[in-house]
What we know:
The structure is a single chain. The chain is built from 13 helices and 9 strands. The chain has 287 residues and is of the alpha/beta class. It has 2 domains: 3-165, Glucose-6-phosphate isomerase like protein, domain 1 (Rossmann fold), CATH 3.40.50; 169-283, 3-Layer(aba) Sandwich (Rossmann fold). Helix 5 (117-125) links the parallel strand 4 and strand 5 (129-132).
Amino acid sequence: xxxxxVAKRSEEEAxxxxxxxxxxxxxxxxxxxxxxxxxxxxxxxxxxxxxxSKPEIGVLLYSLDYAYTTLxxxxxxxxxxxxAISTEAHGAAVxxxxxxxxxxxxxxxxxxxxxxxxxxxxxxQSEIEILELEKSILRxxxxxxxxxxxxxxxxxxxRMRRLENELSVVEVxxxxxxxxxxxxxxxKARPMIFYSESMETxxxxxxxxxxxALPIDELISRASEVxxxxxxxxxxxxxxxxxxxxxxxxxxxxxxxSSRRLRINTDPLTAxxxxxxxxxxxxxxxx
Length: 287
């Protein structure tokens, strides 16, 4: 599948997720967004979009297992929707939230790679909305779906209306690859990578592929480890000041590094979309 086909397929999957989740989100006054596997960044992005598009929604963000053991048993009657996002195909944690749903009467939607048939049957019995996505494009599809939902919920929010023209990534694939061609070559070399908080979803995609990708907040504490190494910094343009401060502190620590910057110059909500797309452009689809 070439990159345009990947983008097209991701948009189709995103539309399917949007059509299922948007009506549920519209009706909800409080939504718990839960994550398991390497999905914290993705869940954070979804939570941010929901909060910006409809500020009156109460959005909770927790790991799935923490919410299962510590939170949901005590606030189930005040949560209108649980959205669980998983990158784990075995579905063990998702199975726990299914049991919790039956016990507490929660309305639950699950976004996940394809699940084992037995678990899928159990979840259908629990009347859980199951949205299975191809693992290789799960993050890209869900990032796009969250933006579609945000535009739908935030029709009266100018910030969200501006994003409507950025929902089709198929149209920008060629320009994107041309603009960041040298950065893609750097990524193919599999350097030590540090990513900003807004790019956590990109970091999770890279980490899942076996690359050493770490939060940029760990850069200073790893000064001795990165000394004399080549680094790739992945961040968005609106984070320039934060990244520059980290690099100054690293220099003051005495560490000497060679760094390249994959700096994505776009809206904060679309930056991780382009970051994941560039990752696929450089490294191909996950097998």
